[in-house]
Amino acid sequence: MMSPQQPDKVSSFPTFIRTLQNDFYSRQWFSHLLWHPAISSALISDKNRRETYRTLARIERQELGLYVLSLLLLLGMATPFRLPAVLCLLLVLMAHSYLSNKKKALVVQLSAVWLRTEFPPETFDQKTLYQITEILSRKYDTVSLVDTLYFSDSILRILYIGLFVFLLIPYPVLNFFLFAAWVVTGIFLIRYILNNRRIYQNRRLMDMI
């Protein structure tokens, strides 16, 4: 008697984790989902994970502070203190890179714990990452990964069109640094929007974009 045919293996749990480590958008989607009240309240019941959440929240506040400081330094590039502003901005960028790597590790760690809690082990062999995120988005009534990608693409499209229009405007050489400062300011603003979980949680704003 023939045994029933096993379904093809389309993925695995280690593959999911590697994707979260390497794919910015997937990781960002999970970083927003982790703050859903039902998920965060379940995870922080463990003392160690509660401390991880506190560290994650602290990093997000520090990132916001760095964004504000970056904007101030970029505006400083249009003043006589241009060189000190550029040097300080480089230090801020290094600090932001450090925080981003630290946040990445925490998000992957918490996501791995939650995925194992949410699904039986065989699910990761039978479903893709997009299928898993669709299930979670419906269950927790949040935007899907596909919608997040569309939102990000729309924001970046606005940025590229804006930069193209600015490049068509002739600028005197003396105003070059001011122009560059505003361009980089726009990039920083877009980056903040793409990293802000509260924006992703606002369905009305997402639908408008």
Any key phrases for this structure?
78% helix
Describe the structure.
The chain is built from eleven helices and no strands. The termini are far apart. With 209 residues, the protein is mainly alpha-helical. The chain has helices at 13-22, 24-33, 37-43, 47-76, 82-118, 123-126, 129-139, 145-168, 176-195, 197-200, 203-208.
Total strands: the figure is 0
Percent helix, as a range, is over 70%
Shape: globular
Determine the oligomeric state from the structure. single chain
Task: Please summarize what this structure is.
By secondary structure, the chain is mostly helical. The chain has helices at 13-22, 24-33, 37-43, 47-76, 82-118, 123-126, 129-139, 145-168, 176-195, 197-200, 203-208.
Question: What's the SSE blueprint?
Answer:
Layout: H1 13-22, H2 24-33, H3 37-43, H4 47-76, H5 82-118, H6 123-126, H7 129-139, H8 145-168, H9 176-195, H10 197-200, H11 203-208
Helix pairs in contact: 1-2, 2-5, 4-5, 4-9, 8-9
